[in-house]
# Entry
Amino acid sequence: MSYAKSKFKHKDLPVNDIGLTYRDYEGAISTLCAGCGHDSISSAIVHACAELSIEPHKIVKMSGIGCSSKAPNYFLNNAHGFNTVHGRMPSVTTGANMANKDLTYLAMSGDGDSASIGLGQFAHVVRRQLNMVYMVANNGVYGLTKGQLAATSDKGVISKTGDVSLFNDIDLCTMALQLGASFVARCFSGDKRQLIPIIKAAIAHQGFAFIDIISPCVTFNNHQDSTRSYDYVQDHVITGAITDFVPVKDEISCEIPEGTFEDVCLHDGSIMRIQKLDQSYDTNNRYKAMNDIEEHKSKGEILTGLLFIDPTARTFHELNDTTDTPLNQLKQEVLCPGERILGSINNSFR
Amino acid sequence: MKKTDVTTYEHFLKVVDCQQACPAHTPVPEYIRLIADKRYTDAYMLNWQSNVFPGVLGRVCDRPCEPACRRGRVEEEPVAICRLKRVTADFKDDISDRLPNIPDKKNGKRVALIGAGPASLTVARDLMPIGYEIDVYDREKKGGGMMRSQIPGFRLPETVLDEEIKYIIDMGVNTFYNQDISSLDALLNKDYDAIFVGTGAPKGRPINLPGIEQAEKHINIGIDWLSNVSFGHTKEAPKSVVVLGGGNTAMDCCRTAKRLGATDIKVIVRSSYEAMKASPWEKDDAKAEGIDIIVNHTPTEFVIKDGKFIGVAFDEVESIYDRGGNRKLQKTGNTLLAKCDMVLVAIGQDTVFPWIERDIGLEFNEWDQPVLDERTLQSTLKHVFFGGDSAYGPKNIITAVAHGHKAAISIDLFCRGIDPHTRPDSQFNLLSQKMGMHEWSYDNITDHDVRYAVPHVKWEKAVKEIATEVELGFDEMLALNEAQRCLNCDVHTVFTESTCIECSACDDICPVDCINFIENIEDDTTAPEILLKDKLHVNKSHKDQDYLISGRLKTGNIMVKDEDVCLHCGLCAERCPTGAWDMQKLELDNIEATIK
# Structure
């Protein structure tokens, strides 16, 4: 096994606004199985952050336990990171976000980490509208413990060792929609042309952004009976619309595409351009999105793309009316202004 | 798009830039790996098989391989391929038991070689083991041609040259030294089955300027003077010397003059420093030895004062390039008088064939060069072949060697009554280098060291004596370190469409963004670089480098790999879950270097 990736890079590699190439956003060389979808997600995150010119030290990588949660080691070497207890990543992220709301929170979780042991935590962080990007690398199995069926496996599928999935599957996108997430998307790790713009838009979006990423487990769930294998997903994937992310500085020069499209202006002024392939496609309607997911699922298809976005939703800090200054930057004298100020506050109530 | 043809070796050979650039197609990465294994003798023999003079070429080759080296495209400097070749010669054991057996029973065919330079010696080396009887004629008292007469001992020690010539002569070649062939017609009457002309480009180009008659005694043709030095006829140089010309001969002239006692030496060139024809390292060495190189000056006359030669006058010029890129020299108005006692003229050399009668059926073209068939090196006189500088004018040793191989194949075919155009095919094989799960038979981890410099004797000591070799060669440690810099370009990334599941793991891991999965473009005729513009991670940066284009994959997409800066690190193959990528070594019969 090669332990190092060469530091040589292509001399013509584009440099972003802060003088870095995407190679500067990479992490350690992956120890996941060769061909693991999670590595493609890592690569998409690397490219998305580089293209957005985010300073790596202003990013926090959060994760729980599982193959998915190992992945943050393989991107953004210069970012902060916290590998939490199994299923408890949402609470720790909430804490971190409380302390410093100015950082970008990228969370990597898996189907076990979010749909089994961490389902309760997941539900509440969606409700809380925490400003973060919550990505689930969804492969339908517990890869780290040798391929048991996960709660996101489709009912009736057979595992590599022959077990049949007897129970209903949990669809995290439907759950997120139902619990009030303001940005919900489903992607396929093998399609970076879709995944990178959606990650970029999710980062630009202010509020809780959820991306369920079908990420085949090449070792335990890439067999003939699987509905999460590369072949199955490539054959059954359906895209309602092509999503493109147009950063603020490119808006003026960007070409107007042919056909029907819709522009969604995000909080920072960037634009999410949605080119409709299906005329009835609508990213403003939470209920239709849930319906669409189920409808396609009943036909055996996997609907991908941006499913729902509400750019006006209020975030946790807005709902709680916290100060503009991140809490970790508030000094003792501001938090505890002293007896004289306390006296004047008390006086105002007399 | 049109799928790359991977059923022949052409695509793969082109990826091995050094081997492709070498006229004799020396398998460079293979011998560098042998060095890394400390198998110096094996490495030497591999070289010997394709380039015949590893010890000589490891010192004085023009190194067409090095500018081609991929390393120069991913960092600053190429691998020191040439000096690693010298390592094989320096560290090898006795090779006499590895030389080919010479059959006692000859095949009855007799071949004459005219001139005993690198081209002729290569023909002898190739034909002796298959039973030919070879007579070689040379006007000098020893073989070697320009390798002996024009390359001074401080760059190429005589012992190295003698050794490598001996391997060939000792095969039983009949030598006729000190014999000037003055008539090809006379030789034709000696009933040789084939004649090979390898007489080089022995005539130094003269310069005709006002004052030449009176200055004649002070003017020498560079290559003639070097030849006189190497054969011991000239033992000293006057105090001040001017060398005209900017090629490697000029560099040899000035450095030789320094060793023969000259103290004030100027090389004066018409061109700019960058445009000088000499190899960059030759210029560096000359400067390090304290030689003055004056650029942008064109000579106007040999200056005679009071009936005595005092020096050469020059006009300063500027090089102006027109739209077509042609150089024009424009005078600036400044002049220069370079006083000196001797002028060495090194402004080029030419072939000359006064000894070939023009009425014997051997045709010459408008430039007085023999008319040759480029594929076979056969002249219009069917049993006379040419090679080396005499074929197409002055080139270099490695080209002469390549010509020698080519001509030897032609001569063999001709003598067996076969049309020399029916060249034997080169066999090739691609062999997987997989040893285990993620283990390869070669060092696939890219080494990031910068090029190691070759140690040399102190410059003060170097210039004292002509036989002192300046370069000491790599020691073992340096050689092993330098060998690690080789990227093993002959271990190819081979792609199999049918097993690819399009997981993009290879694309994600590739350190240099070579690998792309894109929608197929329905166009088989337009050039790929036009079709692929702005469709890949990075646009093509070197036009001469090829793409590896796959057939359609399961989704209808195709894989396009830009071979340009691939590090051959094998990570694509390591990350591939299905073995669609494999690292396979190209094994090639030495093209045009093996008689079958």
Remarks:
- Chain B touches chain A through 37 residues (CB under 8 Å).
- The CA atoms of residues 103 and 440 of chain B lie 41 Å apart.
